[in-house]
């Protein structure tokens, strides 16, 4: 929008219904619900997530953690729906009204931030305090020792990398709201506050994980009691390389938005091809790491279909023979596990793993929307 009231705002129909501040808020709230669903499903599988992240609740509530998370999600969802309802009533899809009433979605974002900062006693104050203290530690790339909750630090930092674009959206929305002559519900201005501010914000989560990987490498290197399991720390360096590969993508994306041939020294098609190469390497390296390292699956192992399936399960009677000549031994040790998976799995059906692999690949390749002029619009909707 150029500030001329005679010019009709260039807002698409989706942005008239769900402008940028609401899209960012929706993804934040959806993340809380998704965390509750994760806790719930893992609770049904007898996996104690709070113990894994070294979280011990100080409350005497008999409710399991996933139900308390659902209560938290419900509390922040209600005001979002009310805010949306009043926004739709007041704007009725009118572009000028949508720009005028940006105070409504911005107020909800402010209340959402305030909600997490103020430890209201009836809504998991200890959990939110643990979240804030962990966030404070990882925000500078810190990471706890294994016995102090290292897994929780990594988990939160990985969540931040997934929400890096949302963090950029929150800044853009707030910057446009505070800027004279602009509205946070207008078409997103990625240059608000300067050409490189948003790319820097988006890159911060990757910087955090990069520093955590280097800290873990140093711990392994300085440990005098190295074992075959810990190795020399090369895996942490390889993981650091994965997060480093995000920086060229972010930089080249910023250069494409504010393309100036006099400053860059590359043609626009050449810059796009260079971006395409870096985003391809980042996406498929990350996809490989997700499957082979984070999930410990054997999809990329050449001999993955020749291993034997020996699940450790309480359902196996202890009286089963360990004699190789015993029929029970062969029934347990000669049955190959599903292709690309692993001998021991927590989910009963292989389809869950295959579905997760496909979804992960699709999400890693959302950048391909830019390759089609018919789909690039959806890529720019920011969530």
Percent strand equals: under 5%
Tell me the structural class: mainly alpha
Order of helices and strands: HHHHHHHHHHHHHHHHH
Q: Regions with pLDDT < 50 over 5+ consecutive residues?
A: 1-8, 308-335
* Major β-sheet profile: none
Mean pLDDT: 81
Tally of contiguous helical segments: 17
Oligomer status: single chain
Q: In whole angstroms, how far apart are the ends?
A: 21 Å
Instruction: Please tell me what the overall shape is.
Output: globular
Estimated radius of gyration: 24 Å
Helix content: 55-70%
Please count the beta strands (DSSP E, at least 2 residues each): 0
Q: Outline of this structure?
A:
The chain has 383 residues and is mostly helical. Helix content is 60%, strand content 0%.
Would you kindly provide a written description of the structure presented here, covering whatever features stand out?
- This protein has 17 helices and no strands.
- With 383 residues, the protein is mostly helical.
- Helix 2 packs antiparallel against helix 4 (65-91).
- The longest helix is centred in the N-terminal third of the chain and has 27 residues, at 65-91.
- It starts with 12 loop residues before the first helix and ends with a helix.
- Residues 1-8 and 308-335 have low confidence and may be disordered.
């Amino acid at each position: 929008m150029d500030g001329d009231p005679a010019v009709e705002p260039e807002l698409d129909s989706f942005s008239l219904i769900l402008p940028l501040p609401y899209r960012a808020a929706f993804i934040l709230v959806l993340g809380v619900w998704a965390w509750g669903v994760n806790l719930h499903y893992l609770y049904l599988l007898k996996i104690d997530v709070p113990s894994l992240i070294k979280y011990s609740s100080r409350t005497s509530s008999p409710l399991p953690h996933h139900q308390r998370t659902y209560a938290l999600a419900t509390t922040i969802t209600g005001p979002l729906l009310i805010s949306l309802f009043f926004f739709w009533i007041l704007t009725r899809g009118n572009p000028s009204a949508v720009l005028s009433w940006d105070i409504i979605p911005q107020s909800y974002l402010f209340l959402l931030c305030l909600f997490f900062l103020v430890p209201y006693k009836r809504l998991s104050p200890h959990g939110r305090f643990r979240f804030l203290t962990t966030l404070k530690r990882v925000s500078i790339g810190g990471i706890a020792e294994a016995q102090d909750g290292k897994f929780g630090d990594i988990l939160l930092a990985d969540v931040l990398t997934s929400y890096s674009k949302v963090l950029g959206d929150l800044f853009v929305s707030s910057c446009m709201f505070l800027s004279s002559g602009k509205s946070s519900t207008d078409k997103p201005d990625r240059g608000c506050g300067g050409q490189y501010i948003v790319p820097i914000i988006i890159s911060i989560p990757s910087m955090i994980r990069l520093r955590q990987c280097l800290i873990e490498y140093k711990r392994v290197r300085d440990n005098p009691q190295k074992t075959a399991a810990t190795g020399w720390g090369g895996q942490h360096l390889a993981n650091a390389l994965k997060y480093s590969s995000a920086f060229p993508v972010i930089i080249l994306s910023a250069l494409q938005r504010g393309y100036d041939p006099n400053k860059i020294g590359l043609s626009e098609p050449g810059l796009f091809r260079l971006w395409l190469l870096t985003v391809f390497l980042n996406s498929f390296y990350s996809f490989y790491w997700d499957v082979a390292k984070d999930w410990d699956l054997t999809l990329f192992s050449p001999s993955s279909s020749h291993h034997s399936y020996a699940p450790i399960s309480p359902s196996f009677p202890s009286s089963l023979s360990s004699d190789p000549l015993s029929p029970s031994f062969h029934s347990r040790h000669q049955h190959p596990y599903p292709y690309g998976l692993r001998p021991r799995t927590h989910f009963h059906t292989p389809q869950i793993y295959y579905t997760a692999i496909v979804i992960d690949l699709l999400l890693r390749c959302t950048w391909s929307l830019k390759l089609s002029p018919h789909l690039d619009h959806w890529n720019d909707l920011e969530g």
